[in-house]
Here is the input.
Amino acid sequence: MEFRVINDTGSMVGIMDRNGALSYARDNEVDLVLITPNANPPVVKAIDFNKFIYQEEKKDREAKKGQKKVGTKDVQLSLFIDEHDLERLKSRAQEFLRDGNQLRVRLPLKGRQMMRKEMAVKLIRNFIASLENVKIVNEPQFQGRVLMAIVVTDKSSGTQHENKTEN
Here is the structure.
């Protein structure tokens, strides 16, 4: 079987048979690493294996730097929340959404508050409506005694808003 042999600088050495490629690697005191097995002929690189592993890990680290982790942040309301507290939580929620996080809006009900489920749903819907450029992922629903909804930033409404200002 023949291989396309590349040296550690990336330049092509040539097409060699298996024994020729192994003797080339042995003469240069390096390892042969199979880079592209499906090519015709398969590509091998004559490089120190530890150096190869280090370069691959370095590429992975660089790729991870560009990625942004999206988390879920919580905002917890109460049924009888004051207007000022609601405004404070609204600004914090906007900040979470601006950072690219999902927002979970929670409203736990305690004791006799369970008799006021409609009031809780109305409060959570008004809170979500007061946020800018959001899309509801999970509608408000009860999970036990906690009313929960998940919202994210609506990308499409931001672009529509920009188009409206251009016209």
User: Anything to note?
Assistant: Residues 159-167 have pLDDT under 50 and may be disordered.
